[in-house]
Design brief:
The complex is a heterotrimer. Helices cover about 30% and strands about 15% of the residues of chain A. By secondary structure, chain A is an alpha/beta fold. A five-stranded parallel beta sheet of chain A has the order 4-5-6-1-7, sandwiched between helices. A two-stranded antiparallel ribbon of chain A has the order 2-3. Chain B is mostly helical. In chain B, helix 3 runs parallel beside helix 7. Chain B has a domain of about 170 residues. The chains are: A alpha/beta, B mainly alpha, C mainly alpha. Chains A and C meet through helix 2, strand 4 and helix 3 of A and helix 1, helix 4 and helix 5 of C. Chain C: This is Heme exporter protein B. Chain C: Required for the export of heme to the periplasm for the biogenesis of c-type cytochromes. Chain C: It comes from Pseudoalteromonas lipolytica.
């Protein structure tokens, strides 16, 4: 499902409310018919959120960042991460502090998580920012895989999705003062 | 608890509740204040030691009691706001905080003014004065935290958390200051005898305490009404009310 | 990908990440100690170098300096995590946030509090503190500085989202530090008179236990407010 709308329409705010970071003025968010404020831990099990701020520490290397993220989410961090980092185009950059990488490469360090999780719901805020064409295409391939495996994706983007998603739904927010 | 609170989760109901309560508080305040001040300042007998200067207790003691009382009410409102997610209780916290800070300041100023003839100095590090000063810092912390946030929703919740942390710490602070004071008791402090206060002074004091409590209630209710209107200004019920005049 | 919950894995991941970062930019460890040293140097310059007077004031000086130097690191405690989005990832992790917070506060103490404890003999020397008071100073710092980290982290959590949170944080936190200051300095005072000071230590210990249980909950809710 894609969330569209002009700048300032509230796409990011809505995503953050759905992810449970912010509270709505009124109403509640339900996940599998249960309020996420009450059952946040269970919801968090099935949630992968990557926002504008990606949660990548620029002092640490790509490898350290990925391993940290795996650990704080209870995944096995001792697995061999080099092949996955290579697949996403970070070959040879695994042990360089992230601040030395380009914006697109930094974004890739965050997006590695999409290959390393078992969450059903992905909430992605502008995932294509700073990515090159091949990166965008590569990411969309991963989206298709996730959807075929029965997952759901909620994302915002200003770019048109180049891959054809058969059950893409677009919700457009209007700017209201 | 929830059943009882639930109706007041709606802003318009809370606003109506304020309106209903306000006259009662106002009447109590006006009556008690006139009676208490005239009785205390003019008719109550002068102290055999301190002469007329003791009469400041008719302002000092009520404000000191209310400074603590207002803080506890603020903390209770904060707990209600966080546990039951009641936005109106959050607004109540914000409504009480400045009132409590003012009462605390009054207690401090009158305490200092009383200290001058009593102890010969405007300020002595008396345990109760020191606690009161720290209480003022806690109030100011809640207020400045609230005003530092641009997003008033987050501001309200942050202020609530701080109020609760403060109320947990308050007894510890109070106890530690008492204890520190007995440890360092200097020669300058001569506490006036703590023997029971004479009924002719006790009753006007009680009336004054009720008057102050009523006054804090009145100001808080008016402030709460304002906060509710400010937050709800785009809602239909406010518009209806304004149009009806 | 299989999820396997291990609270220890979370704790050690957060704890070791903060330590790793601090050791990479050594300033974070060195600066609070230097600050502490400089503040302590200022006192003899301000009140005169008379040894008796310094020894009399030493507990107060050491503890006020400790209060101020822990404030330095507090500002940074959650700031980087807030700005780069790590905090959101920590909240959205299925682990309980208070545990994460506990790990961060523990790391903060190891970075700013522990060095002070280790350096105490040097400060005691500078301030002419009697040897009988040295042990008391070390013990109060050992019990008291973690308390400062816990209480301070509440203020840090509340102000991390604000533009100029630093000064405001000090305003919020310093009044809450007063009991620690009173009991710690009184323990040192008592010890220099060669009297038993176990009572004050017991109170500090009790406060520390309460803080370990209650503070992470307060800090977590503060962080959730700041992130929203």
């Amino acid at each position: 499902m894609q969330l569209a709308g002009p700048n300032g329409a509230g796409k990011t705010s809505l995503l953050r409310i759905i992810a449970g970071f912010a509270m709505a003025d009124e109403g509640d968010v339900l996940f599998q018919e249960r309020s996420i404020t009450k059952y946040y831990d269970e919801f968090a099990q099935e949630l992968l959120f990557i926002g504008h701020k990606t949660g990548v520490n620029t002092q640490l290397t790509a490898l350290e960042n990925v391993a940290f993220w795996l650990k704080i989410n209870g995944y096995d961090s001792k697995q061999d991460l080099y092949p996955i980092l290579a697949k996403i185009g970070l070959v040879g950059l695994e042990d360089v502090p992230v601040r030395m990488l380009s914006a697109g490469q930094q974004r890739r360090v965050a997006l590695v998580r999409l290959w390393l999780n078992s969450a059903k719901l992905w909430i992605l805020d502008e995932p294509f920012t700073a990515l090159d064409k091949s990166g965008v295409a590569f990411l969309q391939e991963r989206f298709v895989e996730h959807l075929n495996a029965g997952g759901a994706i909620l994302l915002t983007t200003h770019q048109d999705l180049t891959t054809h998603f058969s059950d893409l739904q677009t919700v457009t927010l209007e700017y209201r003062h | 608890m929830w059943k009882w609170l639930h109706p007041y989760a709606k802003a318009d109901r809370a606003y109506q509740l304020c309106n209903t309560l306000l006259p009662y508080f106002a009447v109590v305040t006006v009556v008690c204040m006139i009676v208490g001040w005239v009785w205390g300042l003019a008719y109550a007998p002068a102290d055999y030691q301190q002469k007329d200067s003791y009469r400041i207790i008719f302002i000092h003691v009520p404000s000191a009691i209310l400074s603590m009382g207002a803080y506890s009410s603020m903390a209770i409102a904060a707990v209600i706001a966080l546990v039951w997610q009641l936005r109106n209780a959050e607004l109540a916290v914000i409504a009480i905080a400045p009132v409590g800070a003012c009462v605390t300041a009054i207690a401090l100023i009158t305490g200092a003014a009383w200290g001058k003839p009593m102890w010969g100095a405007w300020w002595v590090w008396d345990a109760r004065l020191t606690s009161e000063l720290i209480l003022l810092f806690l109030y100011l912390g809640v207020l400045s935290l609230y005003h530092a946030f641009e997003d008033k929703k987050a501001a309200g919740r942050a202020a609530c958390i701080l109020a609760i942390v403060g109320v947990i710490n308050l007894p510890i602070i109070h106890f530690s200051v008492e204890w520190w004071n007995t440890l360092h008791q200097g020669a300058t402090i001569t506490k006036f005898d703590t023997k029971a206060i004479d009924p002719s002074m006790f009753w006007p004091l009680m009336v004054n305490i009720v008057a102050f409590a009523g006054f804090v209630g009145v100001v808080t209710l008016i402030r709460l009404k304002n906060e509710i209107l400010q937050r709800e200004k785009h809602r239909p019920w406010v518009r209806d009310m304004v149009e009806r005049g | 990908m299989v999820k396997q919950h291990s609270y220890w894995q979370l704790f050690s991941a957060v704890f070791s990440k903060d330590l790793k970062l601090a050791f990479r930019q050594r300033a974070e460890i060195v600066n609070p100690i230097l600050f502490f040293l400089i503040v302590i140097t200022l006192f003899p310059l301000a009140i005169g170098p008379e040894p008796g007077l310094l020894a009399r004031m030493a507990p107060g000086i050491i503890w006020v300096a400790a209060l101020l130097s822990t404030m330095l690191g507090l500002d940074k405690l959650f700031r980087d995590d807030y700005h780069d989005g790590t905090l959101e990832q920590l909240i959205a992790s299925s682990y309980p946030l208070p545990l994460t917070v506990l790990a961060k506060v523990a790391a903060h103490w190891v970075i700013t509090g522990l060095p002070l404890v280790l350096m105490t003999p040097v400060f005691a020397l500078l301030l002419n503190l009697e040897s009988s008071a040295l042990l008391a100073t070390v013990l109060t710092l050992l019990l008291g500085t973690p308390l400062l980290s816990f209480i301070g982290a509440i203020g840090a959590g509340l102000t991390v989202g604000l533009q100029k949170g630093g000064i405001l944080m000090s305003l919020l936190v310093l009044p809450l530090y007063i009991p620690v200051l009173i009991f710690a300095t009184s323990a040192i005072d008592t010890s220099s008179m060669e009297l038993a000071y176990s009572g004050q230590l017991a109170i500090l210990g009790a406060m520390l236990i309460v803080a370990i249980i209650a503070a992470p909950i307060a800090i977590s809710s503060a962080l959730k407010v700041s992130v929203s």
